[in-house]
Specification:
Length: about 170
C-alpha cells in the first residue's frame, strides 16, 4: 500500500535526501501501482517520481514554499522585438543614442537571464558578490534603457524593479 495519497503536499528532495535548494513543493496528483507518483508542480507541469524523491509537508510549509516559488517565477524581460533600422530611420536625430541604448538593452537582458537562472538555482546567498553586483547593475540599466525607448515610443513598455529585496528578476 502507498504511503502517500492524492492531494498530499510534498517537497522535492535532491539525491542526498535533503530538500532542493531553493525548495520546490508539489501536490500528489495520482498514485500508481509500481511505486510511482504523478506530481503536480507549481508551474502547472507534472512529473513522475518515486517516493524516495520527496517527503510529505504540512499545509503551512507548503504554502510558504509555494509563495517563494511564485516569487522566483516572475517574468524576465524580453528582448525588444523591433526593426531597429526602421525605428532609427523615423528618428534620425537620435540615431546614436538609439543604437547605444539598444545594444545596452540587449546586454542587460542577457545578463538578467543568465544570473536570474543562477540565483534561482543556487539561492542569492550562494552567488559570488561580483555576479550579484552585475545582476543589480543590469536591473537598473534595463529600467533606464526601457524608459528611454518608452519616452520615444509609448508602445514600448517600461519595466520596474520588484519591491521585494530577494526577488531575482524584473516584473
Amino acid at each position: 500500500m502507498a504511503k502517500f495519497k492524492p492531494d498530499d503536499k510534498v517537497i522535492i528532495l535532491d539525491y542526498n535526501g535533503k530538500p532542493l535548494v531553493p525548495q520546490v513543493v508539489a501536490r500528489i496528483e495520482e498514485v500508481y501501482e509500481d511505486g510511482r507518483y504523478r506530481l503536480d508542480l507549481p508551474d502547472g507541469a507534472a512529473c513522475f517520481e518515486y517516493e524516495t524523491n520527496f517527503q510529505k509537508v504540512d499545509e503551512e510549509t507548503y504554502k510558504k514554499y509555494l509563495q517563494l516559488v511564485r516569487e522566483r517565477e516572475q517574468d524576465l524581460p524580453l528582448d525588444l522585438k523591433m526593426d531597429i533600422r526602421k525605428f532609427v530611420a523615423q528618428r534620425p536625430r537620435l540615431r546614436r543614442e538609439i543604437y547605444r541604448n539598444y545594444e545596452l538593452d540587449k546586454k542587460y537582458v542577457s545578463i538578467i537571464h543568465a544570473y536570474a537562472g543562477r540565483i534561482s538555482m543556487y539561492g542569492r546567498d550562494n552567488i559570488p558578490e561580483q555576479f550579484l553586483w552585475e545582476f543589480e547593475d543590469a536591473k537598473r540599466g534595463i529600467v533606464a534603457t526601457r524608459a528611454f525607448f518608452h519616452d520615444i515610443d509609448e508602445s514600448i513598455k517600461e519595466v520596474s524593479v520588484p519591491e521585494q529585496a530577494n526577488a531575482p528578476v524584473i516584473e
